[in-house]
């Protein structure tokens, strides 16, 4: 049934490009391809940020079966940490690097505090209690930032570097998009190394597989769980700085929508699966951008992205790369 | 039983005495505006302008000997909160005159209530045409979007000489949609064509997809009818994509000088007044405002200031503070204010001109606006 589709698509593109009379057929094809690549790059840049934040959601769920709704607001705090560093130091290379470091450190410390105070005491309680606590932490973070005198509820302009456009033949990409894509990829590669090639990563996988058995094997479960939260938050902090660099306006509510979309991305890719979060984030970012680019009513972009989620879950309920959980009765 | 009778008698007496209270010796004016949130720049400036006017009038002896009492409420730019603020001002504080709200969506939310309860409402800066539709108790101090959109289109076509325009607007915002329709009509009337018309939803932060399409259509000018916080984001991405055309906007751009960087240079927008105008009334206002708040007043401050002075003239003309009398005196307004000579047409919309200002880099390296042109109705 699907065999004829690729052929029909190519035929359609051929006919479309042949018929646009103002330019030659070759020019039209090159132009359409160029626009397509451009939009793809736009989507990739957006998707990388969603992927970074989705990784935090998926890792925490994998290990303690908790959806940490406060994760989006950890990203917001990372963005504000970066903001304060950049206003003090300016957007030099040193300033930007220190902004990342400051954001990551702040988020790590914050999540250690939250985990110790709010999540650890409820580890043996029903899961609903932890979920509600996570929502409470989200509200506390948002409103605390609104009320703090040096922050306040009004949006602020985030200091960014001057934009430079690179034009290589068919592709036009801005330096900000380059930074976002390259840095996200680097962070994901480092995460992959930690999880798959170090002892700590092996411990994390063990704890997420069976907490009781891991503690019997001599793994300090509490420390591994805290470490998982920390890694997730470090990624969220970096994601916050990247998001603020790409969309330079920060306010205390900025984490809500990206957090929600990242959660959707994590579920789409299979919650609990790290490659799943990366894939889910990319798919969501690219889908959103492609809908805005090619659909006649771009305001439906979000609705369509979420419909994709529903479709995927109907076909594969555990998500794209998620594992089917066998429950033994 | 006897105690109950005594209690009942005492409360009846107390209530009767309360009802005999003579009318208050101050004129209560309520103001509603976004004092926090994404439009806080407008709300704060407008409130400052109102306060400046109220203090000036009170210092000069008030209106007919009565002092003005200003009660300001914050609606955060959200229509539901405007309604709550309105209800509090009218029922709890007893205000019969409201200056607000600032944004069109919020103003429209309270006009039916004001009309039904016979409360005089002046919207200082709400430009959507529907604002004054609710009835004859609703006025506005600024020109409306049809006029503003037309001004933008005329300016782009005639003054900038553009032949192809692209528009990127917020499809969920009355203000943005109204401006777009009128810009299109005026631009086409001036001989241009709209080569690209893209939309986004309120709250969107990523416009790269729409901007790529706009870039591909190769326009001479891009029209961005939205508020400063969104425009700052759009223009950053617009320049990052390599679109170097002039950009045109409307009064919602006021505030960009503090919230954006060099990317908004070569930008023009229609505004209610220009701070560097040489008119004595304007200069007087600007000097006093700077002395009190150490900032150059934006158009919203000027409109708030003018609203209070319009009310003062109306109350003086009416001789009393009864809302029906104030309403009919306000209808007959004919005077010179900071934002120009003002009369009302039969829809309670002012008949006055618009100025176009340009965003340039000042001598101190910071962004500022300079007067570019005046367009009259």
Task: Please write out the topology.
The complex is a heterodimer of chains A (329) and B (377).
Chain A: H1 4-19, H2 25-64, H3 71-89, H4 93-119, H5 127-147, E1 156-157, E2 165-168, E3 171-174, H6 175-197, H7 199-209, H8 211-216, H9 221-246, E4 249-250, H10 256-269, H11 274-294, H12 301-315
Helix pairs in contact in A: 1-2, 2-6, 2-9, 2-10, 2-11, 3-4, 3-9, 3-10, 4-9, 6-7, 6-9, 7-9, 10-11, 10-12, 11-12
Chain B: H1 2-19, E1 26-33, H2 40-59, E2 67-74, H3 79-92, E3 97-99, H4 104-116, E4 120-123, E5 138-140, H5 145-159, E6 164-170, H6 174-189, E7 193-200, H7 208-217, E8 221-223, H8 228-240, E9 247-249, H9 256-259, E10 267-271, H10 280-293, H11 299-318, H12 323-331, E11 334-337, E12 340-343, E13 354-361, E14 367-375
Parallel strand pairs in B: 1-2, 1-3, 3-4, 4-5, 6-7, 6-8, 8-9, 9-10
Antiparallel strand pairs in B: 10-13, 11-12, 13-14
Profile the largest sheet of chain A: 2 strands, antiparallel
Report the strand count of chain B.
14
The CATH superfamily of the largest domain in chain B bears the name: Response regulator
Query: Strand content of the residues of chain B, in percent?
Result: 15-25%
CATH class placement of the largest domain in chain B = Alpha Beta
Largest sheet of chain B: 7 strands, mixed
What is the overall silhouette of chain A?
globular
Quick one: how many beta strands of chain A? 4
Named at the architecture level, the CATH assignment of the largest domain in chain B is 3-Layer(aba) Sandwich
Give the terminus-to-terminus CA distance of chain A. Answer: 40 Å
Strand order of the largest sheet of chain A: 1-4
Number of domains as seen in the coordinates of chain B: 2
Helical stretch tally of chain B = 12
Kindly report the average pLDDT value of chain A.
Answer: 87
CATH fold-level label of the largest domain in chain B: Rossmann fold
Radius of gyration of chain B: 23 Å
Q: Which strand-content bin applies to the residues of chain A?
A: under 5%
The main sheet of chain B orders its strands as 7-6-8-9-10-13-14
Number of helices of chain A: 12
């Amino acid at each position: 049934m699907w065999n004829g589709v690729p052929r029909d698509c190519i035929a359609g593109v051929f006919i479309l490009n042949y018929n646009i009379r103002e330019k030659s057929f070759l020019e039209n094809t090159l132009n359409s391809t160029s626009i397509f690549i451009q939009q793809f790059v736009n989507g990739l840049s957006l998707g990388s940020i969603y992927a970074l934040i989705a990784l935090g959601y998926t890792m925490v769920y994998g290990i303690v079966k908790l959806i940490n709704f406060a994760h989006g607001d950890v990203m917001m705090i990372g963005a504000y940490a970066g903001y304060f560093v950049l206003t003090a130091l300016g957007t030099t290379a040193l300033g930007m690097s220190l902004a990342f470091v400051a954001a990551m450190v702040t988020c790590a410390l914050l999540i250690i505090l939250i985990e110790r105070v709010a999540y650890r005491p409820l580890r043996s309680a029903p899961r609903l209690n932890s979920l509600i606590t996570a929502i409470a932490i989200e509200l506390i973070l948002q409103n605390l930032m609104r009320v703090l005198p040096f922050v306040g509820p009004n949006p602020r302009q985030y200091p960014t570097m001057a934009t430079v456009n690179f034009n290589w033949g068919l592709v036009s990409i801005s330096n900000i998009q380059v930074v976002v894509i390259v840095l996200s990829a680097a962070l994901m590669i480092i995460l992959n190394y930690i999880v798959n090639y170090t002892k700590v990563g092996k411990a994390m996988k063990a704890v997420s597989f069976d907490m009781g058995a891991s503690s019997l094997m001599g793994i300090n479960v509490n420390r591994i769980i805290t470490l998982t939260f920390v890694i997730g938050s470090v990624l969220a902090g970096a994601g916050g700085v990247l998001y603020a660099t790409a969309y330079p306006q920060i306010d205390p509510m900025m984490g809500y929508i990206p957090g929600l979309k990242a959660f959707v991305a994590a579920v789409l890719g299979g919650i609990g699966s790290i490659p799943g979060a990366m894939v889910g984030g990319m798919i969501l970012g690219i889908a959103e951008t492609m809908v805005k680019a090619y659909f006649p009513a771009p305001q439906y972009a979000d609705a369509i992205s979420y419909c994709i989620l529903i479709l995927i879950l109907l076909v594969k309920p555990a998500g794209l790369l998620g594992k089917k959980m066998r429950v033994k009765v | 039983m006897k105690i109950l009778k005594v209690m009942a008698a005492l409360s009846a007496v107390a209530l009767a005495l309360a009802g005999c209270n003579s009318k208050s010796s101050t004129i209560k004016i309520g103001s509603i505006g976004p004092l926090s949130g994404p439009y806080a720049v407008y709300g704060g400036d407008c409130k400052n302008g109102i306060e400046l006017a109220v203090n000036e009038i009170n210092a000069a002896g008030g209106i007919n000997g009565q002092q003005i009492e200003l009660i300001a409420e914050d609606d955060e730019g959200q229509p539901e909160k405007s309604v709550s603020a309105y209800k509090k001002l009218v029922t709890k504080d007893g205000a019969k005159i409201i200056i607000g709200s600032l944004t069109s969506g919020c103003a429209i939310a309270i006009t039916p209530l004001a009309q039904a309860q016979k409360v005089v409402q002046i919207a200082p800066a709400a430009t959507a045409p529907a604002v004054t539709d609710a009835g004859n108790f609703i006025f506005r101090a600024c020109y409306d979007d049809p006029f503003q959109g037309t001004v933008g289109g005329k300016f782009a076509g005639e003054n900038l000489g553009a032949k192809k325009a692209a528009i990127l607007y917020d499809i969920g915002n009355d203000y943005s949609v109204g401006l777009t329709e009128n810009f299109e009509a005026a631009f086409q009337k001036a001989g241009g064509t709209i080569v690209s018309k893209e939309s986004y939803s309120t709250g969107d932060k990523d416009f790269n997809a729409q901007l790529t399409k706009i870039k591909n259509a190769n326009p001479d000018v891009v029209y961005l009818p939205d508020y400063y916080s969104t425009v700052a984001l759009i223009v950053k991405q617009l320049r990052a994509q390599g679109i170097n055309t002039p950009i045109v906007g409307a009064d919602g751009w006021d505030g960009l000088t503090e919230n954006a960087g060099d990317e908004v240079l070569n930008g023009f927008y229609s505004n209610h007044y220009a701070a560097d105008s040489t008119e004595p009334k304007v200069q007087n206002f600007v000097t006093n405002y700077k002395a009190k708040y150490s900032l150059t007043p934006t158009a919203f401050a000027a409109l708030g200031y003018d609203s209070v002075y319009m009310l003062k003239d109306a109350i003086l003309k009416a001789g009393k503070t009864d809302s029906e009398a104030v309403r009919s005196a306000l209808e007959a307004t004919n005077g010179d204010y900071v934002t120009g000579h003002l009369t009302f047409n039969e829809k309670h919309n002012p008949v006055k001109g618009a100025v176009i200002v340009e965003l340039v880099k000042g001598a101190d390296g910071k962004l500022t606006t300079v007067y570019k042109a005046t367009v009259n109705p």
